[in-house]
C-alpha cells in the first residue's frame, strides 16, 4: 500500500511534540514525499554498527517494506558481519554485503552516520545516489546528504526513525519496536546518560507497550560475553593508567588473538574504565584488525570529548566520542592530551 503522504504530512503530529525535534517540518515533508515516490530504497548505517545505527535502519526498513517498497540495507565494513551483540535484532534478511549494494541508488537513507567517512565501503554508492536522506543526531554531522533529518537534541537516531515511521503512516509492531528499543537503550546507556529526557522514557513506554522483552534485550546487549573477554578485559585493566583527571588504557590485537576475541567484543571496556572516580575523562585505545587504533573517549560532563575527537579527525557527542589513530599508543595519547588541554 502507498499511503497518501501529503495528507499525513499536513496533519499536526503528536509525535513531534514528544521529541522537541529540531528538524524543520519542510524537511520531514520532503522526506515523506521522496520515500512515497520511490520504488526501491537503499539504507545504510555507519561502519561497525552499534544498536542505534543498525536498529534505526532495520526499523525503518520494516516500515518501508510494509509500504510495499523494495528495501536493501547495509553498512560499509570490509569484513561484513553483524556484531554478535546485535544478532538478535529482527529484519537481518534485509541486509546485503556492500558488494551487492546498488551502485547508484535513486533514493538512499543513512542512519546514525555523522560523516561521509563513516559510510566506509558505501561512500561511492552514496556519492552516486540521486537523493540521500541523512537521519542522525550527532551535533558534528556535516550534512553530507541532499536532505538532512538531523536533531542533535535527540538521544538516539532511533528517535528520528520513530518519527519518520509515524509520518510515513506506519505503526509500531514488535519487530520495529525491538529495533528502535535497541537503539534507544544503547545510546542512552540503559537510560543512564544525561540525554535521557522525558521524551526518551515516553518513547520507551510506547515501544515496551508492543510486548517486547526488555529483559531479553538487556541480556543480549549488556550481560553476555565469551570467556575470552574476561581475560582481555583483565589485561586492559591491568595496564590502565591514571594521570591528573585522565584514565586510559589500550587493548592490542595480540591480546585479542590470544583469546580468539573479535574486535567488536571490546565495545564495553570503556564503560568499566570510565567508572574511575578520580578521572573526569576516560580513554580506551582498541587496536583493530588493520593495526589502527580506534580511540573511545568518555567525559563526565566538564570536558567536551566530542570537540577533542573532532579535532583529531573523529567526532561524537560532548560526553562520548571517538576517532581513529594511525600512530603509536604513545603518540596517540600525546596528541589526545594536547587537544584535551585546549577544551
Ligand atoms: Mn546514535
TrEMBL record:
GO function terms (MF aspect): 3'(2'),5'-bisphosphate nucleotidase activity
Q: Which InterPro entries match?
A: DDH_dom, DHH_sf, DHHA1_dom, Oligoribo/pAp-PDE_c-di-AMP_PDE
Region listing for Disordered, in residue ranges: 1-22
Organism domain of life: Bacteria
Ordered alphabetically, the record's keywords are: Hydrolase
Q: What is its EC number?
A: 3.1.3.7
Q: Which Pfam families match?
A: DHH, DHHA1
The DDH domain extends over: 41-183
Biased composition of type Basic and acidic residues is found at: 1-10
Q: Which residues form the DHHA1 domain?
A: 260-332
Kindly give the PANTHER family that the UniProt entry links to this protein: BIFUNCTIONAL OLIGORIBONUCLEASE AND PAP PHOSPHATASE NRNA (PTHR47618:SF1)
Protein name stated in the entry: Bifunctional oligoribonuclease/PAP phosphatase NrnA
Organism in which the protein naturally occurs? Nonomuraea helvata
Amino acid at each position: 500500500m502507498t499511503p497518501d503522504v501529503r495528507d499525513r504530512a499536513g496533519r499536526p503530529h503528536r509525535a513531534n511534540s514528544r521529541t522537541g525535534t529540531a528538524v524543520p517540518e519542510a524537511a520531514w515533508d520532503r522526506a515523506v514525499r521522496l520515500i512515497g515516490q520511490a520504488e526501491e530504497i537503499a539504507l545504510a548505517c555507519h561502519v561497525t554498527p552499534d544498536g542505534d545505527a543498525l536498529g534505526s535502519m532495520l526499523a525503518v526498513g520494516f516500515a518501508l517494506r510494509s509500504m510495499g517498497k523494495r528495501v536493501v540495507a547495509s553498512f560499509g565494513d570490509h569484513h561484513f558481519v553483524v556484531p554478535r551483540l546485535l544478532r538478535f535484532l529482527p529484519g537481518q534478511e534485509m541486509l546485503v554485503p556492500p558488494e551487492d549494494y546498488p551502485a547508484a541508488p535513486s533514493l538512499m537513507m543513512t542512519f546514525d552516520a555523522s560523516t561521509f567517512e563513516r559510510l566506509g565501503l558505501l561512500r561511492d554508492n552514496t556519492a552516486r545516489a540521486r537523493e540521500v536522506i541523512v537521519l542522525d543526531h550527532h551535533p558534528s554531522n556535516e550534512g553530507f546528504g541532499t536532505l538532512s533529518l538531523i536533531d542533535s537534541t535527540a538521544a538516539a537516531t532511533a528517535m528520528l526513525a520513530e518519527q519518520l515511521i509515524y509520518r510515513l503512516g506506519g505503526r509500531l509492531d514488535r519487530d520495529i519496536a525491538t529495533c528502535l528499543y535497541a537503539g534507544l537503550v544503547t545510546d542512552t546507556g540503559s537510560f543512564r546518560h544525561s540525554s535521557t529526557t522525558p521524551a526518551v522514557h515516553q518513547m520507551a513506554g510506547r515501544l515496551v507497550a508492543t510486548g517486547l522483552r526488555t529483559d531479553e534485550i538487556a541480556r543480549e546487549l549488556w550481560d553476555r560475553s565469551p570467556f575470552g573477554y574476561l581475560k582481555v578485559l583483565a589485561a586492559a585493566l591491568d595496564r590502565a593508567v591514571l594521570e591528573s583527571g585522565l584514565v586510559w588504557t589500550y587493548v592490542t590485537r595480540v591480546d585479542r588473538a590470544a583469546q580468539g576475541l573479535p574486535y567488536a567484543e571490546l565495545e564495553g571496556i570503556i564503560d568499566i574504565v570510565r567508572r574511575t572516580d578520580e578521572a573526569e575523562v576516560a580513554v580506551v585505545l582498541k587496536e583493530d584488525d588493520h593495526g589502527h587504533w580506534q580511540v573511545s573517549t568518555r567525559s563526565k560532563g566538564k570536558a567536551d570529548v566530542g570537540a577533542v575527537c573532532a579535532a583529531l579527525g573523529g567526532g561524537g557527542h560532548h560526553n562520548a566520542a571517538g576517532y581513529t589513530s594511525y600512530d603509536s599508543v604513545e603518540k596517540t595519547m600525546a596528541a589526545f592530551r594536547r587537544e584535551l588541554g585546549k577544551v
